[in-house]
């Protein structure tokens, strides 16, 4: 009975996801990622905007999201309650603190679209580099330089092990200041396009936190803009982090 109930809930969630995907397809390219059948564990299926479907036992949801982020505007996950994305709970699905809960028979798709649009964008280094390569000014570029900041577990051999960092930011102010940094970097001679992204929420040890990617005519301009970009992000954008170590936890400013 547990198995049958689980499959029934997944079908209901899948139906809502399909209807939401149709609505989002009016705004951009959509990828739908589905957890595998319980009889075939660890199998992920995903469908891209042109109808192509793929599946594999070794597919990891983060890897699939990384692939989709390069050339999709939206991705919907069905059956991944622990994924690091905002959750839309269908009916009485056991989802902790969902962004939205909808009726499976009469879902409020307008509210679901609003919840998707309000979510922090899912970006990876690959998706940002792909965006730079699609830049209208890419024909003038001879270099792409990047920086990736990650959660460091240890400072030295005597340090306490850091399990995770949790990031929060003043959304409106952070967005305004990040946009100003990008605009000023792009105004430099030789810099053609810039992408900046800082994750929010919990980030575990070894995972990526922040990305800076620069498209430039030559490597020197690219390297200098990347260095200045990450320095200014840390100094000017109001981001706070909670560090969780094996001994306890504490908040501090990102700088």
Describe this structure in words.
The longest helix has 23 residues, at 2-24. The strands form 4 sheets. A 4-stranded mixed β-sheet has the order 3-2-1-4, sandwiched between helices. It has a 4-stranded antiparallel β-sheet with strand order 10-8-12-13. It has helices spanning 2-24, 61-69, 109-118, 125-133, 171-186, 219-236, and strands at residues 30-35, 44-47, 53-56, 74-78, 88-90, 100-102, 143-150, 162-169, 191-198, 201-204, 208-216, 239-245, 248-253. It folds into 2 domains: 2-118, no CATH class; 125-253, Aldehyde Oxidoreductase, domain 3, CATH 3.90.1170.40. The model is unreliable at 1-6 (pLDDT under 50). By secondary structure, the protein is α+β, with helices and mostly antiparallel strands.
Distance separating the two termini: 52 Å
Structure classification: alpha+beta
Oligomer: single chain
Largest sheet: 4 strands, mixed
Architecture of the largest domain, CATH level 2? Answer: Alpha-Beta Complex
Structure annotation, total helices: 6
Q: Roughly what percent helix?
A: 25-40%
Assigned CATH class of the largest domain: Alpha Beta
Annotated CATH homologous superfamily of the largest domain: Molybdopterin biosynthesis MoaE subunit
**Do you know the CATH topology of the largest domain?**
Aldehyde Oxidoreductase, domain 3
Report the portion of residues in β strands: 25-35%
- How many strand units? 13
Radius of gyration: 20 Å
Number of domains: 2
Q: What is the chain-wise order of helices and strands?
A: HEEEHEEEHHEEHEEEHEE
